[in-house]
Amino acid sequence: MSVNVNPAAEPLLKVSGVETYYGSIRALSGVDVHVNQGEIVSLIGANGAGKSTLMMTICGSPQARNGSVVFDGTDITKMPTHLIARRRIAQSPEGRRIFPRMTVYENLQMGAGLDNLKYFDEDVEKIFALFPRLKERQSQRGGTLSGGEQQMLSIGRALMARPKLLLLDEPSLGLAPLIVKQIFEAIRMLNEKEGLTVFLVEQNAFAALKLSHRAYVMVNGKVTMSGTGRELLANPEVRAAYLEGGRH
Amino acid sequence: MEYFIQQLLNGLTLGSIYGLVAIGYTMVYGIIGMINFAHGDIFMLGGFAALIVFLILTSFIAGIPVALALLIMMVVAMLVTSLWNWTIERVAYRPLRGSFRLAPLITAIGMSIVLSNFIQVTQGPRNKPIPPLVNDVFHFGDVTVSLKQMVIVVVTAVLLTIFWYIVNKTPLGRAQRATEQDRKMAALLGVDVDRTISITFIMGASLAAVAGTMYLMYYGVASFADGFIPGVKAFTAAVLGGIGSLPGAVLGGLLIGLIESLWSAYFSIAYKDVATFAILAFVLIFKPTGILGRPEVEKV
């Protein structure tokens, strides 16, 4: 995959005025974010700010009550989740959601289901090169993996779909610093070499901002700040709220 | 000893039929976590469809080969039950998905009543007999094995193999297992969850139709009430083997068939159902998830 410039210069993903509810509780109130082709964009914020909800709303589960989500020129706001996935938005969701009673190999096969495993052999080698641990564990059941291994599997499974847009929800959650570094390095490499567009949610704001081209800060279901990774790293408010005294 | 072996074979035959029906219960439970109480009646419906096809075939084509007739009966029964089970899922279960847990259970019981009453009204309340289709028997010493017993066991074994292959080795089976384990994640990976669930109902119904045809061939009679007791037995088989587990359903079916025929042979036939359910209760006390059921706790 190469970085191809969108002819109309429209962003690959455009979320406008999105409001999502859980029952009568409003989790997102008027969120506007966009992700351009070839970018790494991160979304930082405290627990319960609505970051994961935004990720899931993009995938139509739950669907936004108001506002719109446009992906690659198509309005996907009210599209069923599986059809959104077939437009090549892959997500490594909150909690990783590995299929516990399937082997690592089968989990990866599930990722490649969109193409009926057409590119499976080729792609699985890439994933194994990226995360050699998965190769060692390939015939083990997903539920028996450690947290870090599950995280790698979740990202690997999302990559197997050959996504146009990769959504990563807290790829560093609960992982040892060394593995976090390894995963972030892998994301950077995929972005630089293959032009993969990534939208990620992170609590590890420092690492995320360093990695990203642009970032958004979310508070209580609203986007309160945005800018380049560097700008936000230097912003005193962001530093006070998310960086200093926080984990690195 | 011969008597024992004879009863063992009888139990195996009956158990095969229970096993086929039990798979439908267990698959549906596995994938959407509900007991499809109408499944026993789907089995009964399969028997009736086969019976009607048999009557049509024999009245229009004299001297049709029995094997061919059975095959046609089975295929038509599969189509009829699939259509019914698909429709039931579509109208009675799908709208209630995401509602409280008891709701689909209640509609399932409702659908069960609808089906058995529908057959009672349209086909009459009396037992419907058919002439014996397969009469050949083989003698091994004092042990008698009838051809129809062999057919039942072989058909069951073949179907189970095909089924096992589909569930474990094909993309469809993977999608079914993924849907079972995490429906939301399956959708995130592009699996059409509704379609996968519909297919599961169709597969369960097809096996029930085969079981219904076999039951008709074995006992030579169909009744609108056949959905209930054999249905409950098959459900028991699924629970005994561990609900949600395919090999468990078959094992449970075979065990119940064996318990029934051995109890009837050595003790009192009137108490065979008591024996079956007593053993179920006993097993569940010590192994609440059934013999091959998976423990509920999992590392996540």
Describe the protein's architecture and organization.
Chain A: This is ABC transporter ATP-binding protein. The complex is a heterodimer of chains A (248) and B (300). The model of chain A has no long low-confidence stretch (mean pLDDT 89). Chain A has helices at 51-58, 81-86, 104-111, 120-130, 132-136, 147-159, 177-194, 205-211, 229-234, 236-243; strands spanning 13-22, 25-35, 40-45, 66-71, 74-75, 89-92, 165-169, 197-202, 214-219, 222-228. The two termini of chain A are 32 Å apart. In chain A, β1 (13-22) and β2 form a beta hairpin. With 248 residues, chain A is α/β, with parallel strands linked by helices. Chain A folds into two domains: 1-88 and 165-248, P-loop containing nucleotide triphosphate hydrolases (Rossmann fold), CATH 3.40.50; 101-162, no CATH class. In chain A, α3 packs parallel to α6. Chain A contains ten helices and ten strands. In chain B, a hairpin with a 2-residue loop joins β2 (137-140) and β3. Chain B is 73% helix and 4% strand. Chain B has 300 residues and is mainly alpha-helical. The N and C termini of chain B lie far apart (51 Å). Chain B is globular. Chain B has one domain (12-225). The model of chain B has no long low-confidence stretch (mean pLDDT 90). Chain B has a two-stranded antiparallel ribbon with strand order 1-4. In chain B, strands 2-3 form a two-stranded antiparallel sheet. The chains are: A alpha/beta (248), B mainly alpha (300). Chains A and B meet through α2 and α3 of A and α6 and α7 of B.
